[in-house]
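Standup notes
- HV: blocked on the assembly model, inputs below
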Amino acid sequence: MIMRLSISSGVGERVNISSDTWTVAGRTFTSRLIVGTGKYKSFEENAAAVEASGAEIVTVAVRRVNVTDPNAPRLSDFIDPRKVVYLPNTAGCFTAEDAMRTLRLAREAGGWNLVKLEVLAEAKTLYPDMIETIRATELLANEGFEVMVYCTDDPVMAKRCENAGAVAVMPLGAPIGSGLGVQNPVMIRLIVEGAKVPVLVDAGVGTASDAAAAMELGCDGVLMNTAIAEAKEPVTMALAMRHAVEAGRLAYRAGRMAKRRYADPSSPLAGLI
Amino acid sequence: MTIDATISLRINGEHRRVVVGMTLAELINSIGQDPGRVAVERNLEIVPRSSFATLCVEDGDDYEIVHFVGGG
């Protein structure tokens, strides 16, 4: 995707968004928004939302083929894996072994090593089990996988993931599917400051301002599914998220003003009539 | 193997009877799937796609055949 947007500052200086790329495991992307492909009403709506989001990566799940209905529509008929990177995810896995089994199958199905690991502790919160997650990260990295890791919003655990071989760390903003927004901005910022691999807020985004807030903390990207899929108009929300991620990123790069406790006039006090 | 030259196996937990000598690629085609878009576990071991056309299914085999679906 090539962004044509450039902004003139009025003194001839230009901000070129297309030069602002990010790289994970040697692959470079322009879009900082990764979207999921679950929960949509139809494959058509899903494909239109991916298009509107500008995402270059989509997450996918690995499941049994339909043995009884061979004519059931397939995701790849609507979202072309040659045009958009499929990032296989281990959603629904509660042990390192289940996650590894899933990703070995994903590697065989897709033919690539870049995967998203998520090992969940329990169903109510879908909170990651970090002990299993770190164990699986290390084992998968040793098998040649490039593992993007869903983790807690804990700088110590994020660093442990990185040390275990994660190519990106993806702390949750809030519980998966909750739409509560980034609950722990201080810790997300500390993860960003300490990480040597890309940091993406994964889960918890509910609306555009949440995505912008995540990007303003300095994250390299945001991953979301439900915020788009469960919006009343998913395609419109996908476009909003695209702009929010771009706006948040630009605000981070611009460097926000310092906060003041009291007012400070914008018009000069000198020359008042 | 039985007198009618069929064998019994399981695909994704479901029992099937197929003819003796069927390859894995033929088995995948027989359930309406594209061998180029699935991954297969045979008795908990991954089968490389390059072996689909040559591997003959055997009596008692247990297959998991998976593909990518929508997910978060």
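- HV (later): unblocked. Residues 175 and 223 of chain A are 13 Å apart (CA to CA). The interface with chain B takes residues 36-40, 43, 46, 59-65, 67-68, 70-71, 74-76, 81, 86, 88-89, 91, 101, 104-110, 176-177, 225-226 of chain A (CB under 8 Å).
- Next: hand off to the docking folks.
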